[in-house]
Amino acid sequence: MKISSPRRIVGSNAERTRLHNRQVVLGHVRERQPIGRAEIARISGLSIQAVSNIIAELEEDRLLIEAGRQSEGRGLPVLKYRLNADGAVALGIEVRPDAMFGALVNLEGETLFTTREALPDNAPSTVVSVARRIRASALEGRCGKTQKILGAGVVMPGPFGKVGISGAGQSALHGWEDSDPIAVFQEALDMPVVVENDATAAAVAERVRGVATGLRTFCFIYFGAGLGLGVVADGEVQRGAFGNAGEIGHVIVRPGGRLCACGNHGCLETYASRIAARTRLADAGIEIGSASDIENLYNAGNAHLMEWIDEASGPLSQAVGLIENLFDPETVILGGAMPDAVLDHLIASLELPGGSVAARAGRVTPRVQRGACGRLTAALGGAALVIHDTITPRIAAKT
Amino acid sequence: MKISSPRRIVGSNAERTRLHNRQVVLGHVRERQPIGRAEIARISGLSIQAVSNIIAELEEDRLLIEAGRQSEGRGLPVLKYRLNADGAVALGIEVRPDAMFGALVNLEGETLFTTREALPDNAPSTVVSVARRIRASALEGRCGKTQKILGAGVVMPGPFGKVGISGAGQSALHGWEDSDPIAVFQEALDMPVVVENDATAAAVAERVRGVATGLRTFCFIYFGAGLGLGVVADGEVQRGAFGNAGEIGHVIVRPGGRLCACGNHGCLETYASRIAARTRLADAGIEIGSASDIENLYNAGNAHLMEWIDEASGPLSQAVGLIENLFDPETVILGGAMPDAVLDHLIASLELPGGSVAARAGRVTPRVQRGACGRLTAALGGAALVIHDTITPRIAAKT
DNA sequence: TTGAATATTCAAGTAAGTTGAATTAATAAG
DNA sequence: CTTATTAATTCAACTTACTTGAATATTCAA
Q1: Tell me, in Å, how far CA of B44 is from C1' of C28?
Q2: Which of B326, B363, B364, B388 to probe the A interface (max A CBs under 10 A)?
Q3: Contact B325 A248 (CB under 8 A)
Q4: Coil, strand, or helix at residue A298?
Q5: Which residue out of B171, B219, B328 would a mutagenesis test of the A interface target, given it has the greatest number of A Cβ atoms within 10 Å?
Q6: Residue A133 backbone phi and psi in degrees, to 5
Q7: B86 CA to chain A: closest CA distance, Å?
Q8: B213 touches strand D (CB under 7 A)
Q9: SS3 (DSSP) at B122
């Protein structure tokens, strides 16, 4: 399975320029809506006329709508625009070994629909037919509305391709080794498709509609089956050369420590992850099924769970420290398939290293915070990726 | 001191499009020279005519030159072009607490001139006057040649701004806290200036003319005063939100281990860095002055130095593992102010974790290799950054 | 009431890319 | 040896999308 392809340096022409500028305008509207032509022109460096033409086109496509005139001091009152939330939708699909989740999200990142479907097996044919079902139920009853479907974001557990983490088989999908997921889903869903890992999708979800709104550089530590890291650097999603960046679960934080399924000792994942929590509780004779089991245990003040949190805190603090030192993000977000209360408790118990580039005077964002997108983060993230792609342009200039 | 400014999303127009396309053409020529118009057009997605116009312009600017016709099967023989190595030069200046280094590099990345000047103190006024002297001697005797000066890359030790690593004062410059280095050097050198940290500059040097030629995603572990990490991801230099990404020296690899100057215990820098080596040797009564002292000791087979290498190997292996897991690079390069022989020995002694996304079947590049740019890497890197900026475009498309 | 400030629109101009036909030169085929 | 085919390049016309400058609309301030 391979989701990242080599990139080719391409030239630009009038058509690509317009595409880029549409994204620029959409991006600025999203960030500062409602907003008028003149202001967009100022911050984008385009002429008012160019912005005007693009807005006309976006209005035609129903991605933007007028938001009334507003007088602000002298001069002609500004005719403001905002995103037309219902002008377009994106589908998000998360594939887990045992189930699939679907989410439909509008241009503003608002969730319109979510669903869960059991997954009897992981064969591509099964996954694809469930994906079709999710597509159908998500779009059902929306045929009347003339909403543009931007595409689908499919979230699958990494790592992708044949890599050295052999024990990670428990989180990877079987039967997908030789397939091209993008082509498969594109065919099945009949729309543009992007494929991403859960942590990255979660990060983008937080950027489109969560605690990372407006941030250009941040990291998301995602509790999935293992532990993943989603990285957005200067507005760009980081994937690595082979699509496997952010494998933080197998970073060694306790040399010579616990044996991990990957064969190494002291991986972060053996301390801070759902697997770690489950193992810890199983040792105490408590079996964990769903995430709500953990929530119940936490609410009941279960001593073993509390001990796990204590044990996870140190390694996790160390991981946050290294993320800060390596990526220098505006903030680190914690989230994924772990109850909010547990995440909050974990965050509160962190003892962040003082010697970090992040221990900076005059910070505005907290060093670590909990994600706002909740349990469905990944599926929402898939959809958010599509929204993100339509709205976020690539070229930035220094101020 | 602040070198990173917030970026603003800007629109594109005909002028900016041309600038981008010039870089695209230059980039493709650099990568596959000698090369003809038609091939450039094919790989860049531009029309032949567009490429033709751009080549005419670049030839006019003396950045490209004809490389003769070459028959390749049927049809009109291709008129090939190559970079005009001497068409333009870039100045690199490295500022260290005790000395400054200068390098002049041509468009092909070839070193034309290097120099070293002692630095009596770190006051901006002193640094600036030495920089002016370096500029003068570098350009001396080149006034006759009509070489375009693209700009200067100034390399300074990070971290920049007020951060939590208080003990890092030994590597940071004093008296620069409130100044704007870019403006200062731009004024002093009378040319466009970029400022970068040593590790990043070294990484770019390897990309322009070293072992990372042709790679889009890789990391460089740089032995400077401390230990830094330069990251190039998908062709883009990674700086972090505040310009301090890559502070790998203060990543904790041995929890509860040696006390670092930063106040934490077990930082990588206390095991694998010049400071660590110096401390280790000082304990044995051996004082280290310059880097050549280390080289002599190594050649003499000094037992204490060998012991240090042994001690450094474990933490360094762990660091390489985490870099691989977090960034998923095509390769990790080791280099900087450490003798080649020591670097080679260090690399040979690494025991890389098997459980890493980098332990992949069918690798083409080695997981870890030594940098090719030698001791002057950083100064060369400064110049390379300028070359890189003129040649590397930003927009890439999936194949 | 008048002038200045600001946003927007209209109309013309420009830069840079694309397209299609013509030209040139090499190889392959008859 | 002649002719056809192939491929690179150039020429000229066309198209797209941005910019510029003038005109218009609306509000605030004097």
Answers
A1: 31
A2: B326
A3: yes
A4: helix
A5: B328
A6: -65, -40
A7: 25
A8: no
A9: coil
> Whose C1' is closest to the CA of A13: which nucleotide?
C17
DSSP summary character for residue A113: E
Q: Give me the amino acid identity at B138.
A: A
Distance CA B271, CA B279 (A): 10
| Sequence-ordered list of residues with C-beta below 8 angstroms from that of B353, at least 6 positions apart, any chain | A250, A252, A264, B317, B318, B321, B359
Euclidean distance between CA atoms A211 and A197, whole angstroms: 20
Contact B17 A21 (CB under 8 A): no
Assess contact for B63 and B83: CB atoms under 8 A. Answer: yes
The answer to whether the bond into B159 is cis (omega within 30° of 0) is yes
- Cβ of A70 near strand D (under 7 Å)? The reply is no
Mean pLDDT, chain A cut into blocks of 10 residues (399 residues total): 68 94 95 94 96 96 92 87 94 92 93 93 92 94 74 83 45 73 92 92 94 94 92 94 91 93 91 92 86 89 94 96 96 94 96 71 83 86 93 62
Q: Is the dihedral of CA B37, B41, B44, B46 positive or negative?
A: positive
User: How far is B79 from B59, CA to CA, in rounded Å?
Assistant: 13
Which residues does A238 contact at the CB level (< 8 Å), separation at least 6?
A: A200, A231, A232, A245, A246, B233, B327
**What Å distances lie between residue B34 and A8, A320, B180, CA to CA?**
19, 47, 41
| Three-state DSSP class for residue A220 | strand
Torsion angle of the four alpha carbons A204, A209, A215, A220, in this order, in degrees rounded to the nearest 10: -40
How many CB atoms lie under 10 A from the CB of residue A37? 20
Distance B251 CA to C17 C1' (A): 49
C-alpha distances in angstroms, B27 versus A67, B55, B200, B311, B393? 44, 12, 20, 42, 7
Residue type for A250, please?
A: H
Residue B122 has pLDDT above 70, yes or no: yes
Cα distance from B146 to chain A (closest Cα, Å)? 29
* CB A210 within 8 Å of CB A371: yes
Going by C-alpha positions, the residue among A176, A224, A178 that lies closest to residue A200 is A224
- Give the HSE-up count for residue B398: Cα atoms under 13 Å, Cβ half-sphere: 5
Q: Report how far residue A227's alpha carbon sits from residue A249's, in angstroms, rounded to the nearest whole number.
A: 5
Please give the angle made by the CA atoms of B32, B33 and B39, to the nearest 5 degrees.
65
B124: Cβ contacts below 8 Å, ≥ 6 apart: B175, B176, B179, B184
